[in-house]
Write a structure and sequence with these properties.
4 strands; 75 residues; 2 helices; alpha+beta; 24% helix
Length: 75
């Protein structure tokens, strides 16, 4: 996790466990126009809202840039 991602998790009340689950078992993934990977998963404990994780794929290990609940995802 980048420093920004850690700050966003805290600010947005997103658990690291939800991030792990989303990265391990996403409901879907997309490659953005920016080349980053975007992972999506519905989080039951948070009213089935869609967690959206943005990851830099060209690093090892992969770096999580940010995480947020995406109101537009899946629509």
């Amino acid at each position: 996790l980048t420093k920004h991602a850690r700050n966003m998790l805290q600010e947005r009340n997103i658990s690291e466990e939800w991030v792990r689950r989303t990265l391990q078992e996403p409901e879907w993934k997309e490659t953005g126009t920016d080349g980053n990977l975007h992972y999506f998963k519905s989080i039951e404990e948070y009213g089935n809202r869609i967690l959206h994780i943005v990851v830099v794929p060209d690093t090892s290990p992969k770096r999580v840039l940010t995480a947020f609940f995406d109101r537009r995802a899946g629509r």
